[in-house]
Amino acid sequence: MQQSDFRKKQPVKWMTTTALLMAMTTAMSSFSIPVPGGHLYLCDVVICTAAVLLDPLGAFIAGGVGSFLGDFFFYPAPMFVSLISHGLQAVVISQIVRRAKPERRGRAALLGVLLGGVLMVTGYTVGRAFVYSTPEYAVLKLPFEILQAAIGGAAALILCFKSGLLPFWDKFTR
């Protein structure tokens, strides 16, 4: 069943799953792991996983709105940057995975995670330059954004394609 069919034929199940993934993104974006020189957030694991599993609308809600709410509740300054950057990241991943043939979903997801990561890192770099009025601060945080995108994307690909989440998801959405 295509994901758009899942949303149309089982709207309550789709809405509940999307809301759960959005709540998980909010929770994962509300705390960080301190690393030398900054913080590492693990919300990208949930965002990329949701984007592989859900249709673009659900991916945007889970990724963009979830990270927006995480910032809104705990650190509101970059909340709109998060909405746009993570929302676009999720939509791009979802669109690329949806357009792939079933036997090429893994490669499509890898391409989507790479392109989505580039969009997210670029969005945060440009957004931080405007929010904090200094491009130097944005460039200073660039390595942490790249690390966050890489860890989140790799973990999501492992969850979806190596741990058995995708076959479970396919059965769940039938």
Tell me roughly what share of residues is in helical segments.
over 70%
SSE succession: HHEEHHHHHH
Distance between the termini: 6 Å
Question: Order of strands across the biggest sheet?
Answer: 1-2
Radius of gyration over C-alpha positions, nearest whole angstrom: 16 Å
* Secondary-structure content class: mainly alpha
Strand content: under 5%
Q: What is the number of beta strands?
A: 2
- General shape: globular
Given as residue ranges, the uncertain stretches (5+ residues, pLDDT < 50) are none
Q: How many H/I helical runs?
A: 8
Largest sheet, strands/sense/barrel: 2 strands, antiparallel
Task: Let me know the average pLDDT.
Answer: 92
